[in-house]
Specification:
Layout lengths: L1 H22 L26 H18 L4 E5 L5 E6 L7 H15 L4 H8 L18 E6 L2 E9 L3 H12 L5
Length: about 180
């Protein structure tokens, strides 16, 4: 009798948890919907100057240093070509190319790389990973001046959320 009651309680709990998990699944976006306006259509502008790129890197590096995080920080122009770069002391070597990749993707696709992360992780849109040169990891932010993309900043070396915090500090020097 005890075994039956225990089994029934366990089964009820499992079904309850399964129901809650199903209920928490986000509704997938309607991929057949046709928006009236083009999303992420900020126009490209002239390339960021070396001076502005260095200022963005300095602000990002200051934020990272304040928190004790060793980061790699890249700034690219609107076409994704490197304008400035900083590897902080003891920053992870593998993150050098990742920081540059995040910046390049944010500039070329005209959106923060967190959009791709969310598309894959939260919406299950795995086809995003088949697009050329995408990186589905936060830490890449477009730099917008006078309503035009002049480049992007990418940070890598910590967790995605750490990379994003440092990037936002650098982007704040341009994106006002």
């Amino acid at each position: 009798m005890r075994t039956r009651v225990l089994t029934a309680v366990t089964l009820a709990a499992a079904l309850s948890l399964a129901g809650a998990a199903v209920a928490q699944q986000p509704t997938p976006p309607n991929l057949d919907a046709v928006p009236d306006q083009m999303p992420w259509a900020t126009p490209y502008g002239p390339a960021i100057s070396a001076q502005k790129a260095q200022a963005a890197i300095a602000a990002a590096a200051a934020e990272a240093a304040k928190r004790g995080w060793a980061m790699n920080i890249a700034v690219v122009g609107p076409g994704g070509l490197l304008t400035a770069f900083l590897k902080m002391d003891n920053a992870q070597l593998a993150s050098i190319k990742i920081a540059e990749h995040k910046a390049r993707v944010a500039a070329r696709y005209r959106r923060p790389t967190k959009v791709f992360e969310d598309a894959v992780q939260k919406a299950g849109l795995n086809y995003i990973l088949t697009l050329d040169d995408v990186i589905a990891s936060r830490g890449g932010i477009p730099l917008i001046e006078d309503g035009k993309i002049i480049g992007a900043i990418g940070c890598s070396g910590g967790t995605g959320s750490q990379d994003e915090v440092v990037c936002m500090a650098g982007a704040a020097t341009i994106n006002k």
